[in-house]
Amino acid sequence: MLDRTDPEGAVAEAAAAYSNWGRWGADDVLGTVNFITPDERRAAAELVNLGVSFSLSQSFDMNGPQKGWRRRTNPVHTMLDTGVDAARGTQGFPHGIGGADDVVSMPLQCSTQWDGLGHIFDHGRAWNGRDAAEVVTSAGDRITGIEHLAAPVAGRGVLLDVGRALGEDGELPDGFAVTAEHLEATARGQGVAVGRGDIVCVRTGQLTRARRQGWGDYAGGPAPGLSFTAAGWLHSTEIAAIATDTWGFEVRPNEFDDAFQPLHQVAIPHIGLLIGEMWDLDALAAHCAADGVHEFFLTAAPIPFTGAVGSPVNPVAVK
């Protein structure tokens, strides 16, 4: 039972109980992604039977959900050269060749993305017990930058469609706290098991609702999401990563009277868990519901921006 008045005590207790510090050595930069071994990847590749693929990414454009919180904005896409320039012959190229170029300016966590291991700290400590001031400086994440995850995030994906299993019309209401019991019941109902090295995708249905009703407070407002009490499940299952269709992964408002994202404070710096947010799971979920198969091969490499603490991603599930 959570004491709503003591988030700091709850975080400290969970951090002590579920810490993976030192599990993969003092120099580790992968955290729970270490659970995805070559054997796991080979087994995951054998899940491909239909050859059907699904992008699990939202769009990256000015119509996205961001509202400017902590300077997070939607992507700004600008053309540097266009077909108009080519048609007018103003590009200066010989023998009639022309082209188009563009540039995008955006926060790295403005749409479908991974939270890197340098994204969240607990009392000045980063993943594996390191001093946060030594890990992330004005030069970026000098130790656990997202570039280290460019290759290994590929393996067995599992969809837990909690929205379809527990919600009305396939959607959980804002503020719904998804517990370990909810996750396990959903997995049983879908006939799928969650285990070591899995990349777990949790669909709440909030993105579905936001697309129907408008973004509203999708970015940072009330949302269904994982309960703080699910920290033990995240640790004991030995999953490699988890992603949701919500802005912040955990339930909002948070389950304490005065807190901000306390599950992040345990999951990232202590468990070393890779967390994905704002994933678009709807098309995949519809297919899984139709054929009853909720496991698939999933590749979800971040863009390897050197020293970044998060990255856009276009996850692709293949069944």
Automatic annotation (TrEMBL):
<dbReference type="Pfam" id="PF04199">
    <property type="entry name" value="Cyclase"/>
</dbReference>
<dbReference type="InterPro" id="IPR037175">
    <property type="entry name" value="KFase_sf"/>
</dbReference>
<dbReference type="InterPro" id="IPR007325">
    <property type="entry name" value="KFase/CYL"/>
</dbReference>
<protein>
    <submittedName>
        <fullName>Kynurenine formamidase</fullName>
    </submittedName>
</protein>
